[in-house]
Write a structure and sequence with these properties.
The chain is of the alpha+beta class. Helix content is 41%, strand content 27%. The longest helix has 19 residues.
Length: 171
């Protein structure tokens, strides 16, 4: 039977960080806050807990703690796979388009310049057909790594698909 006002400081002493808290800046907690609220708590950066609280018709308080750590990790993995090439780890066509739109808008508003390079590996189909797909994959990985190394932070490289790469350079 400890109050929430006394539990939260103890949780923080043990390394919990409240990420979302509507009443954090209020000197006292508003009783309406408990009618239906959720807060997301990160415990030492390792676990993510969603705490949902509600007042029962009898005047008691119910709190449900749900560990959503694995769900969050899976959501992050799905998002990564949706925006990156599975073989090279480079941003894919979807993420490249987003970056291109942002870069063009930034250049338009700031008067900056950008260059778009399209790279296609000539005779790549021949490499796959004669030496096999594992060798073709190794070639794609080598090209991706070289582009990443050469560009560093000066550009944005993406694999559009197959043997096609795009590079966005911003001045």
């Amino acid at each position: 039977g400890a109050s929430l006002q006394s539990v939260i400081p103890r949780c923080r002493e043990n390394g919990a960080i409240v990420l979302i808290d509507d009443c954090e800046c209020a000197p006292e907690l508003n009783p309406q806050f408990f009618l239906s609220s959720q807060r997301i708590v990160s415990i030492k950066g390792e676990r993510t807990i969603v705490v949902t609280t509600a007042i029962t018709p009898e005047g008691g308080t119910v709190a449900v703690h749900e560990d959503v750590t694995e769900r969050r990790k899976q959501e992050e993995k799905i998002s990564y796979l949706a925006h990156h090439d599975a073989l090279t780890g480079l941003p894919n066509r979807v993420l490249f388009r987003q970056q291109l739109v942002e870069t063009l808008a930034s250049c338009q508003s700031s008067g900056g310049t950008a260059a778009l390079l399209y790279l296609d590996l000539d005779q790549f189909k021949t490499v796959n057909d004669t030496l096999g797909h594992p060798i073709g994959d190794r070639l794609l990985l080598a090209v991706a790594e070289r582009l990443r190394e050469e560009l560093g932070d000066a550009g944005y490289v993406s694999r559009l698909g197959g043997d096609e790469f795009a590079v966005l350079l911003v001045d």
